[in-house]
Design brief:
P-loop_NTPase, five-stranded parallel beta sheet, 646 residues, alpha/beta, Archaea-specific SMC-related protein
């Protein structure tokens, strides 16, 4: 891509065997360059050479050549493309200025056959032309992704908010536990003092006391282990209840989904394949028509008359031209043998080819619309199938988890039973060791053991509550970041959802503004206004828009009335088409990425208006290259660069 400094330099073109050109070298300085000359002076061929250097493939190889070359030097950078004849087509190689020339072909290279220019002049659906470069499905896919991400954040925020409401109760519970632990520790300290006092009184029974204390310690540990097992059983039972609730909710979701979401998916896939094949065939036919129209127009200009029909290579394969020419094909023999074939007859055939191409483009748009609808139906069915599969997998996982936790509960219950037996056995041993001398101290030890067990249990509860509080507080702190992230997602969603509307609105606004300016500038007598209205149709779930072109005329006494484009003069239609293409050029920001704008076939417009039109367009392109007849070029500013020989 050229830099702004490079765009201050002249662009040097070297062209071989393109269109009607054998070999030429041309320098194009910034600003307006006028290619002036009579017909058959390779002006259009050179314009197409510029298109080829930019990356377009709407370039014809010279009829008697197998290879061609286009070279563009801009500043210190050189772009070179070669053309090679392969079968009935042309293969392009090398580096072009643009990676993707599609939008430039539509809105920057405004030759006679340009789709945007023709669509406006023929009152075709303008909205489809403006939106053609926009990947609507990619925008919709991005919207779905953003909505899913926003939904996840909303779920997380809802969970955090729910947990936040539990904080006061958890903090009260933590304070209560701390108070209980403190009370128990004070009570234990008092007991330990009593135990010490009692121990001094029974010095002679230390051996028995030591054995008893060991048993009491073992009893305390066993009781603690038993309590731990009981808690594990409770937690497992709570988890099982939660899993069962989740399973029930998933089964409800599953009941709402069709048993076979894909339905007759084979029929749907077959229909999609059929539509794709039809789209491919229509694209091929449209490209063939475009090449054929371009080929014959360039031959008309160059007067290098090759065969148009039966003698030409384009007709040997039974191309779409046969649909138009029919029996008349026999009357058109060749361009060079000297037969008396009127030029108007050839031009008429080209016009009929253009009409057929327009019909094919309409069919292609319908097929694309049908294909998108079928693909959306397939995506929806696939989404439901994926959701059903996911739910079934989750249910299977829950069933496995339920089985696993049930096994754990069974094992824990066995362990609880064993520990209960062990506690009973230890209590029996302690009772056997008790004597009248140790009754008091034994009672104190039992009480102390119980207190220590209760303290351990309370501290365990305190740790769990504290961890839960800290986790919730961390989530609450993270909530602000999540809200900020959600806000950014909402802004991005708004941008994505309104992107198509913005492009359409900007295109309409741009056309209306420039059309108003150009009508004032060109001074068409009884045209009051030409403007586009953006009309929304359908409900919110399937809303569609279209552009409606309005033409307002005035009578001699100043009364306004609405007319149709069919009643415009050829000059007025051409200007309307060019302004529509300029609107697309600006809406898609081509003035920032495509330095060249090309104009051709302006003969229907009078020379003074051509001069005004060229000066108007010159404000928007770094290099504006215009092909004009000498009599039309005379009206242009003398400061503009002229190229008279190609």
């Amino acid at each position: 891509m050229a830099t702004s400094e490079q765009l201050a330099d002249s662009a040097h073109f070297s062209v071989e065997n393109v269109g009607g050109i054998d070999r030429t070298e041309v320098d194009i300085p910034p600003g307006v360059t006028v290619l002036t000359g009579k017909n058959a002076t390779n002006r259009t061929s050179f314009l197409r050479s510029i298109m080829g250097a930019m990356g377009s493939e709407r370039v014809a190889l010279k009829g008697d050549a197998d290879r061609g070359r286009i070279e563009l030097t801009l500043g210190d950078t050189t772009y070179e493309r070669t053309l090679k004849r392969v079968g009935d087509g042309v293969q392009f190689e090398g580096e072009a200025y643009l990676d993707d020339p599609e939008v430039a072909d539509l809105f920057a290279f405004l030759l006679e056959t340009n789709d945007a220019r023709q669509a406006a002049a023929r009152d075709e659906q303008l909205r489809d032309v403006i939106m053609r470069p926009v990947d609507v499905e990619a925008i919709r896919s991005e919207i779905r992704r953003l909505e899913d991400e926003k939904g996840d954040i909303n779920d997380e925020l809802a969970r955090i908010e729910s947990e936040k409401r539990e904080l006061p109760e958890l903090e009260r519970r933590r304070n209560t536990l701390r108070e209980k632990i403190e009370d128990k520790r004070e009570e234990l300290a008092d007991l330990e003092e009593d135990i010490d006092d009692s121990s001094r009184d029974v010095e002679q029974g230390r051996k028995e006391q030591a054995e008893l204390e060991d048993k009491l310690q073992e009893l305390r540990e066993t009781r603690s282990e038993l309590e731990s097992v009981r808690r594990k059983i409770e937690r497992q039972e709570e988890s099982i209840s939660s899993l069962k609730r989740e399973r029930s909710e998933l089964e409800d979701d599953l009941d709402e989904l069709p048993e076979t979401p894909m339905g007759d998916h084979r029929d749907l896939e077959a229909e999609i394949d059929r539509l794709r094949s039809k789209r491919q065939d229509l694209n091929a036919e449209i490209n063939e028509l475009r090449s054929l129209i371009q080929y014959n127009e360039e031959r008309l200009e160059a007067e290098d008359y090759e065969l148009l029909q039966d003698g030409g290579a384009a007709a040997e394969s039974g191309s779409v031209t046969d649909q138009l020419v029919g029996e008349d094909a026999e009357t058109v023999v060749c361009w060079t043998c000297g037969s008396s074939v009127e030029r108007g007859q050839i031009e008429s055939t080209i016009d009929r080819l253009k009409d057929l191409r327009s019909e094919k483009v309409e069919q292609l748009n319908e097929v694309k619309s049908d294909l998108e609808a079928r693909k959306e139906e397939q995506r929806e069915a696939t989404k439901k199938q994926r959701r059903r599969t996911e739910i079934e997998r989750k249910i299977d996982d829950i069933d496995d988890e339920l089985d696993r936790r049930s096994d754990q509960i069974d094992a824990l219950k066995d362990q609880r039973e064993s520990l209960t037996d062990e506690v009973e056995a230890l209590e029996s041993e302690v009772e056997n060791l008790e004597s009248a001398d140790f009754d008091e101290i034994l009672s104190l030890h039992k009480e102390a053991n119980q207190l220590e067990f209760e303290i351990d249990s309370l501290e365990s509860d305190l740790d769990e509550v504290t961890d839960e509080i800290e986790s919730i507080e961390a989530d609450v702190e993270r909530a602000d970041d999540l809200r900020e992230q959600r806000s950014e997602l909402v802004d991005e969603l708004t941008d994505q959802r309104t992107k198509i509307d913005q492009i359409e609105a900007e295109a309409v606004e741009s056309f209306n503004e420039h059309m108003e300016s150009i009508l004032d500038l060109l001074g068409y007598e009884n045209i009051e206004r030409i403007w586009i209205e953006r009309i929304e149709e359908g409900d919110a779930s399937g809303a569609q828009t279209r552009f409606e072109l309005h033409i307002v005329r005035t009578t001699e006494n100043g009364a306004a009335y609405e007319d149709t484009i069919d009643h415009l003069s050829e000059s007025e239609r051409e200007v309307t088409g060019l302004i529509f293409a300029l609107a697309g050029y600006l809406v898609h920001d081509l003035h920032e990425t495509v330095p060249f704008m090309l104009l051709d076939s302006l003969e229907a417009i009078d020379s003074d208006r051509i001069a005004a039109l060229v000066e108007y367009f010159a404000d928007y392109a770094d290099y504006l290259v215009v092909a004009l007849l000498p009599e039309d070029a005379q009206a242009l500013d003398d400061d503009f660069t002229r190229v008279t020989s190609i």
